[in-house]
Amino acid sequence: MAYKAKIRVTLRPSILDVQGKAVQHALENLGYSTVDSARIGKYIEATINEEDHVEAERIGDEICRKLLANPVMEDYSIELEKIN
């Protein structure tokens, strides 16, 4: 059995998002004045070959903490989807 881990990594709200500000400014220049803010993040999908849901969740959390997210500046969330 395996799980697809859908991982979202975003900057913490207290961290200035320079890329998000650039996107917001570009949207304003394109005439989208109703867009008040934009924040940029990362989306990662990883297949975890594990029988146990709890263990797959632990592995997903571990790869986020060790590689995919900077815990000082970023938050992350993991959604597991069972695949075969």
Task: Characterize the structure shown.
By secondary structure, this protein is α+β, with helices and mostly antiparallel strands. The chain has one domain (2-83): Mth169, Chain: A (2-Layer Sandwich). 33% of the residues lie in helices and 33% in strands. It contains 2 helices and 3 strands; from the N terminus they run βαβαβ. It has helices spanning 18-29, 53-68, and strands at 2-11, 41-48, 74-83. A 3-stranded antiparallel β-sheet has the order 2-1-3, with helices on one face. 12% of the residues are buried. The mean pLDDT is 97.
Q: How many structural domains are formed by the residues?
A: 1
CATH homologous superfamily descriptor: Phosphoribosylformylglycinamidine synthase subunit PurS
Oligomer: single chain
Strand content: 25-35%
Largest sheet: number of strands, sense, barrel closure: 3 strands, antiparallel
Structural class: alpha+beta
Q: Count the beta strands.
A: 3
User: Which value, in Å, is the CA radius of gyration?
Assistant: 16 Å
The end-to-end distance, rounded to whole angstroms, is 5 Å
Shape: elongated
Per CATH, the class reads Alpha Beta
The number of distinct helices, counting runs of at least 4 residues, comes to 2
What is the fold named in CATH at topology level? Mth169, Chain: A
Numbering strands along the chain, what is their spatial order in the largest sheet?
Answer: 2-1-3
Helix amount: 25-40%
Give the helices and strands as they follow along the chain: EHEHE
Question: What number is the mean pLDDT?
Answer: 97
Which regions contain 5 or more consecutive residues with pLDDT less than 50? none
CATH architecture: 2-Layer Sandwich
